[in-house]
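Q: What does the assembly look like in three dimensions?
Context provided by user:
Components: two
Sequences:
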Amino acid sequence: MTRYVVNRVLSGLLTLFLFVTLLFFLVNLVVPGDFVSQFIMTAEDASALRERLGLDRPLWAQYVAWLGALAGLNLGTSFTGDSVWALIVQALPSTLLVLAVGLGLAFALGGWLGRFSGYRGRSVLSGSITFIAVVFLTAFPPALAFAMEHVARVSLGYGGQQEFGTLNEARWLDSGLSTSEVMWKMVLVLGATLVAVWAVEAAVRRLARRRVPRWPMLAVMVAVPYLVWKAMGLDAHALDLAGTMVLMVLGVLLLTFGDVLLVTRAAMDDVMLEDYVMAARARGLPERKVRDIHAARPALLPVLSRFTVSIPYFLTGLVILEAVFAGVGASSGFLGILEQIHGQPGLGTLIFNAVRTQNTPVIVGSLVVVGVLTLLLRIALDLTHAALDPRIRFGEAHD
Amino acid sequence: MTSDHIPAERGREAWRVFLRNPLAVVGLAIIVVFALMVVIHPLLMTTLWAGEEDVYNPVTGYDAPLIQAEVVELVTDLSTQVSLVEARAGDITANIGDVVEIRVQPAPPSGNHWLGTDTFGRDVFSMLLAGAWPTFVVGLAAALVSAAVGILIAVSSATFRGKTDRLLSKVSDVLLLFPAPLAMIVLAGGTTTEFLTPLNFGLMYGMLAGGSTVAIVLRSHALATIERPFIDAARVSGAGGWQLAWRHLVPHMIPLAAATVLTSVVGAVVSHGFASWLAYSDELTNWGALMFVAVSFSSLQGVFPWNVFISGAVAISLFSAGFYLVSLGLKDAAFRGSDRGRPGGVRRARGRAPSVM
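A: Here is the predicted structure of the complete assembly.
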């Protein structure tokens, strides 16, 4: 297993390297002209500027410099003067939080519905579930944002001044923190909790040879971060932020659960006809155990592989939705209906605003970050697959 | 089973399986309706609406209904005048009790305009029909190109194995890091519309998605299929390399390929719509642009053109949903049409319910 992990990570680094190379050459060779050619200036000034920016060096030299900069996490300077890396660091935590919570919920909901409806075979209920899944899967994100906003605001009274869903201005001004700082802390605490829970669960499984019950584990995953934030004095801020991001997370959940559902259901259908399922039933096991343990677990492996190709769609949907909620592409008319900005600006806002202003360094830097995110998700899927597949886990005789 | 190699019989059986799935039939019906829309628009323009070009033209038509409204309040304060919706009367000489005529822009559905008119007075139904063709171009171009690229990569991987397989897998892995919908939206923002016509958009989307998502899905199926006995038989009878791939492997890839690329139609159509909604392109007759106009110029009258926004959003979603539902049906037909219950694998013959309903 260790060898597999090492191999996978190295292979991932190679893929990342090739990706960055391709991106560099696409930007420099496909897009006509270079940075300097868009300005109106005399020929001498232009060549002086080129020399200063290093654009007169041969392409391979620029490429090497680009690689060096990337290694140092220097993604260049945006046309507005800020460092691209700083902009991305500011935008990233919101996206990461929505990714973790939204995708996590989508997998949980989609997986549960897929197991449940796949188990029963064809029925009106499973047909309706499929229909609903497809409706949300193909929904146009701005329209979905609209509809959710309308329902939340009108029917539930969400998001007015001083209400749930808006930041409490006074609290934030007093403490002098920025939303981005707090969100990073939230991300780190959440991440640390997940890792700790996973480690404890693995230890218990290996040493005490029992399974940790699921619901207590979930309760811990929710309670521990909150307690840590409270200890850091950030709990009120965290809840504030969470309130603004509820709609965004819900939107991501709706956009993605359909795909998870349909893929899981297809896999369940295949597995349900296996002999070992019939054997489990014949042994007298309750249907729920047959479904969740004997059928769902083997079905999970091809499902994980299949999700590899869904990652681009999940990420794009998330990024688009987050941008829409943050007001990108909204004119006064749309904003009039949205009535206020929701969610926190993240990677999507950064990318789409940068495209609008043709801010190339930011666009390229963001694409690199998106690529890294995709790669990390993919590696996570592969490692989960390997951990669950005994052929890989126990493949080597001794670690 | 010999039915494997009789295309006609497999086709009929597959069709029957497809039709048994209600959702797939619904999807097909949706696509047919949109195809009709493409045909109906020029027909209507030349028959029903002939002579009313200035009313029903999706780009330049104008027919905002005129209504009579009674002035109930005179607002003299300039700043309040600007913010009051009712201040659109505009006739500053009117007095209370006078009846003025105002144009309703946008207007709700009426007898002449089934979906109403937009902020500029254009007939929404006409704009909706006109937008069907660009969307078909994007969707079908994306589907065909991603099928071609995906099949090419998968079949080459399976036929030649070894280094070719490793190289092509690497290529797919790298391309996967450029999420196809996002990359195309960014590209749309960075290029002109002369360059990124709907056709080009679809083609490039197809190349990106086909090389990544479709290729990865098809590759495992190809690798499994090439192990099957009939391939050995073909090799023994002298087929090798490309001939083997083309005559024996590719036909087995087509059903799964068809099912997979239809899902990338969803991505292509939605990203094209979103790019237009952000006004990254200046096409005038696609649904995304329709919604962009609704969103941007609603403040002309302070009334949000719901009829326009909802029509555009529903059109995009319904169009994609149709293709997605058909792909669900095709996945069934691909594997239920023979007695194989699973891609590339040998299974006992058994009756089965469709995998998704």
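Follow-up: The two ends of chain A are 7 Å apart (CA to CA).
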